[in-house]
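Hey, can you fold this one?
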Amino acid sequence: MSSLKVAKALNNNVIIGMHPEHDEVVVIGKGIGFNRRPGDLMPLDSVEKLFILKSHEEQEQYKRLLPELDEKLIEVIGEVLHLVQLQAKKPLNEHILIALTDHIAFSINRHKQGITIHNPFLYETREIYPQEYKMAEQAVALIRDKMDVDLGEDEIGFVALHIYSAMTNQHISEVRKDSRLIADMVQVVETTLDYRIPLQSLDYSRLLTHLRFAIERVRRGEIVQEIYRLDKLLNEEYPEMYMLAWKLTKIMEKRLRKSVYPAEVSYLTMHLQRLSQRKEQGEQQK
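Sure. Predicted structure:
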C-alpha cells in the first residue's frame, strides 16, 4: 500500500507531505496534523483532501497565509474544495487553494466588521456560469453551517468566479474582466435599443450565453465559418442591428486584444434583431 510521508505539520488540520508521485502536497483534515512528526507515514487511501502545489512559490504563499487563519476555517475550506473537486470531475488549477482560502478569510472578516460589498455582476454570473454558481451556493451554505457565518448571495457570485477560474485554468482577474465586458456590452445594447431587457427573460439569458461563448471563441482563436450570403442579407435587412453587432465585436477586440472573426457579427445580429422585435411587441401591447 502506498504511503504519504509527513514533511511538516503546519497545524492540527494541515500537513505538508511527500507524495510518491507528486512530491510535496498539502493535506487538509480535522486533526490530521495532531501529534504528527516529520517522517511519519500515512496510508494514501486514508487521505481525502489532498492538494498539489507544484510551484514552490505557491507552497510558500500558502504557508505564510496559514498562521493568519482560524484552524476551523482551514478545515471548512478543505471541505469546500473537496466538494468542488468531486463535482468538477477534472483537476482544478492548484492556485484555487490559495486564492479561495484568502478570499473567503477576507470575506468572513469583512462580514464580522459589518462591511458588505455589492456584486454588480451577480445575475450575469448566475446565468453565464450555472454549474459553478451551484457549487458556490453549496460552498457558502457549508461555510454558513460550519462557521455560523452567512456571507450572502453577493459572495456566491464571487466564489463562483474563483471556481470557474480553477476549472478553466484562467486567472481570476481575466474571469472578472470577462464578466465586466459582458455587462458593459449588454449596457451598450440596452442604451442603443432604448430597451431594458427583462432580467428573468429567455432573451436576456440567450444574449448573455451568446456573448460568453463569443468571448471564449475569441480567446481560443477559434475559426468561425463565414456565411457570406447570410452576412449580406442581414446587413441589408437589419442595418441598425448589424451596425450594433459590429460595434460590439470592436469592443471585444479592444478589450480582449484579439481579432474577432467577421462571422461573429452575423450571429450577433440575429440575437439583436430578436431583442428589437421583443421591444416592438412590448410597445404595441402598451
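The chain has three domains: 1-55, 68-169, 176-283. Let me know if you want another pass with a different chain boundary.
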